[in-house]
Amino acid sequence: MTAEAQPARSVPVYDSKDRRPAFIEEVIGLVRYRDLISQLISRNIRTRYKRSVLGIGWTMLNPLLTMAVMALVFSQVFGATADYYPVYLLAGLIFWNFFAQTTTAIMNELIWGGSLLSRIYVPRTVFAVSAAGTGVVNLVLAHIALVPIMIFVGSPITPALLFIPIPVLFIASFALGIGLFLSTLSLRFGDVIDMYAVLLTAWLYLTPIIYPIEILPESAHWLIRLNPMYHLVESFRQPIVEGHLAPLESIAIAAITSLVVLLGGAWFFARKGDEIAYRV
Amino acid sequence: MPATKAAPGRAAPPSARRGGEPVIQLDGVSVRYRVPHERIVSIKEYAIKAIRRRVTFDDFWALRDVDLEVRAGEAFGIVGRNGAGKSTLLKVIARVLRPTTGRVRLRGLVAPLLELGAAFHPELTGRENVYLNSALLGFGKAATRDRFDDIVEFADIANFIDAPLRTYSTGMVARLGFAVATAVRPDILVVDEVLSVGDVGFQEKCRTRMEAYREAGTTIMIITHNTALVRQLCDRAAWLDAGRIRDLGDPDTITRDYERSEG
Q1: ipTM of model
Q2: In terms of CA atoms, which chain A residue is nearest residue B24?
Q3: Is B180:B130 a contact under the CB 8 Å cutoff?
């Protein structure tokens, strides 16, 4: 017996001809590379605060302090129109920031990851999925920071809070879908990143996040309801601010849009995915 | 699996070197890049041109009808000038690029040894980078933990393993990159120009490891300008010119003809 005797491992065989649909291939790849995803998430979180004294504490402090400033300013303006306005604002902004940061991060990750994708084989959505995962971790931490404020302001703490993971799942899929779509576009057009930044600002002010929907005339409410972000925010915020679930209609719209956007974005990315290795 | 068929012949490595089963098979592989005629960078421009049907492409065939068969345990060199299609061929074998037409078949674990340390993050420690890089190559955390000590020992950076990578010298980064990429014996090792990095002692160490892997059945694919390296290491070589294989055979003959044509 020589030491050379091969262990009975299965020999992976690659054949460029037998190709499963890109979508299924990607899902199988993600499962196989799950360790990479968790490593990328922990890398993102650790490197962000690597040289700071407070370290990961900033993940909680940063949104808290910015939002405390905004709460102070806007409480004067909208304070009378919404119950527990500081909690209303903070919950809305935590949610919005997750969306804005995650979609932008997905685009930037592809630029970093893209140079790797043209050298070694890795499922191409790995970087987008880990950017979304990083966002979820930050969202959870920021959310923990919200609890003392809820107690301080005296907003109701009820079992409805247990529903929170569901809208988080919705917004994560929504952000992933939009992020995949945008990063595919940005491969081709350099101006997507800048255009998107402008669009994000407009979107933020068109959604009742800083202001309550009640300050708008009744006749304009139908317009706001066309905005899927409104339903996503509401299904997250109502359990926190008002202590009960959002109307079923909002939850259903949030669920359906996030699923459609995720599938649409993933399909677009998979279809154009081969261009990554050609272009980046 | 069919691997057992070749078992009796495997006892004698030197003769098996050329006689192993094919692990890399390229049949009529062509790769086409579509280059937009004018560089269009903004959506507005694109929309205007698309409406006027003015978006035109130049087709550029980086590889044309390449047939290649490399067997287990072979060291195969590919030479060619810049733009001959070497890096495209490399991408096709690294599974990064799918051929436009033709078929690529690979058997076994493929390890790319390209631009060592490209995936390293400067703020992470050497230890964290080993785990991250290993995951990029498709290995799980547990598998990396088992091999961690070997990796550090081979790279010879035990004292620095918990320091951030930005404090490393170029040579140390290259050593760590090589150690991670070759921690497991792959079935196919794809080598770029990388062996020119690091000090002479380490280069020798890399070559020794590659030689040992080859004795154990690893196929080595070297893609380089460095004709001396091909003569020294390879059993066979091919000359790639304008996307086609111009000649294939004995490394001495191929590299001599190539050098002559380059003047």
Answers
A1: 0.75
A2: A14
A3: yes
